């Protein structure tokens, strides 16, 4: 035999129904002139159920989570861990946040991890940086006399990690030349690359921009290095694929870049890195120009030996 709902249950249901109807109207049309937003809109069911509105911790039961609360990243004790030191940091207890792509201290102020304690973030737009300079994919060979004076070799590993994280983050973790993302299975990585301008009168090589490139685009940019390491065909094929150049156009482009490289390599250039020093990044003293040439010869010789050994095997 069916039972008749108790007066309390009927009253509660009637009250709940009115609140739901009011909530639907408010959600569809907004408060509107002369209309007061219901408490239900702020706390789902608040005041309409004996249990709704009770405080559980810092949130009332049934309260809607705001957009900021659902998307705001968790606060972490972040670390600036260079890639070469990640295993050391992990051994000391550091953990990797996959969403933020960054290491953190799960038990803040762990003594062994303080050497990697995060420094202030580098601004997304560096002082004096021109993000329109050197857009797209093109061969951009560094003069021989400037080898081994890139930003990475001129700053500490921790500062390089800060810069690299900013560069990849502002690019949305996509290559700024072809739009590719990182793919570990395909051995495609995202890397930072410098765009330089050269003043022939003052013989100054000025850093104008830092850009995010995928490893295939980076290889095509440094096609001289690709040639030395036996990957010139791979670099050229990627250059043609991304730019739409024909074989003849690509060959002419590489020849022009080669002549420019030869001309610039006959001079000694002074570095201007104010774009990063004005952002609070400290420089290490780069090698002297004479020593750079010797280092370049030694590295090229080692690459040629490795290339010949690879062909024999």
Describe this entry's structure for a reader.
There is one protein chain. The model is unreliable at 3-13 and 22-72 (pLDDT under 50). The relative contact order is 0.10. It is built from 12 helices and 7 strands. Helix 7 (215-221) crosses helix 9 (232-243). The protein is α+β, with helices and mostly antiparallel strands. The protein has helices spanning 7-29, 39-42, 67-71, 86-91, 151-154, 157-170, 215-221, 223-228, 232-243, 247-265, 274-277, 289-312, and strands at residues 55-56, 59-60, 95-97, 102-104, 190-199, 204-214, 270-272. The protein has a 3-stranded mixed sheet with strand order 5-6-7. It has a two-stranded antiparallel sheet with strand order 1-2. A two-stranded antiparallel sheet has the order 3-4. It is 41% helix and 11% strand. The chain has 3 domains: 7-71, no CATH class; 83-116, no CATH class; 144-312, no CATH class. A hairpin with a 2-residue loop joins strand 1 and strand 2 (59-60).
Share of residues in helices: 40-55%
Oligomer: single chain
Strand content: 5-15%
What does the average pLDDT come to?
Answer: 78
Distance between the termini: 89 Å
- The strand order across the widest sheet is 5-6-7
Task: Spell out the helices and strands N to C.
Answer: HHEEHHEEHHEEHHHHEHH
Biggest sheet details: 3 strands, mixed
Number of domains: 3
Shape: globular
Number of strands: 7
Low-confidence stretches: 3-13, 22-72
Gyration radius, to the nearest Å?
29 Å
Number of helices: 12
Structural class category: alpha+beta
Question: Characteristics of this structure?
Answer:
313 residues, alpha+beta, 3 domains, 3-stranded mixed β-sheet, two-stranded antiparallel ribbon, 7 strands, globular
């Amino acid at each position: 035999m069916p039972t008749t709902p108790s007066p309390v249950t009927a009253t509660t249901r009637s009250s709940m129904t009115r609140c739901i109807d009011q909530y639907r109207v408010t959600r569809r049309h907004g408060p509107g002139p002369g209309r007061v937003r219901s408490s239900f809109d702020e706390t789902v069911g608040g005041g309409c159920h004996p249990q709704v509105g009770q405080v559980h911790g810092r949130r009332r039961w049934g309260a809607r989570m705001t957009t900021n609360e659902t998307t705001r990243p968790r606060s972490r004790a972040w670390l600036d861990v260079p890639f070469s030191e990640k295993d050391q940091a992990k051994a000391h207890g550091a953990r990797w946040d996959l969403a933020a792509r960054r290491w953190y201290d799960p038990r803040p102020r762990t003594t062994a991890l303080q050497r990697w304690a995060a420094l202030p973030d580098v601004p997304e737009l560096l002082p004096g940086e021109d993000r329109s300079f050197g857009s797209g994919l093109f061969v951009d060979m560094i003069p021989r006399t400037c080898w081994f004076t890139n930003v990475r070799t001129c700053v500490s590993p921790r500062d390089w990690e800060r810069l690299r994280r900013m560069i990849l983050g502002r690019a949305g973790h996509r290559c700024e030349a072809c739009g590719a993302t990182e793919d570990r299975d395909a051995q495609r990585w995202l890397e930072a690359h410098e765009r330089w301008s050269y003043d022939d009168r003052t013989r100054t090589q000025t850093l104008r921009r830092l850009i995010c490139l995928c490893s295939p685009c980076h290889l095509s940019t440094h096609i001289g290095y690709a040639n030395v390491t036996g990957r010139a065909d791979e670099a050229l094929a990627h250059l043609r694929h991304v730019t739409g150049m024909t074989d003849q156009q690509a060959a002419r482009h590489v020849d022009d870049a080669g002549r420019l490289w030869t001309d610039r390599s006959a001079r000694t250039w002074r570095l201007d890195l104010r774009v990063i020093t004005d952002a609070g990044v400290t420089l290490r003293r780069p090698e002297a120009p004479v020593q750079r040439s010797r280092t370049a010869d030694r590295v090229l010789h080692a690459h040629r030996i490795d290339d010949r050994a690879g062909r024999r095997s």
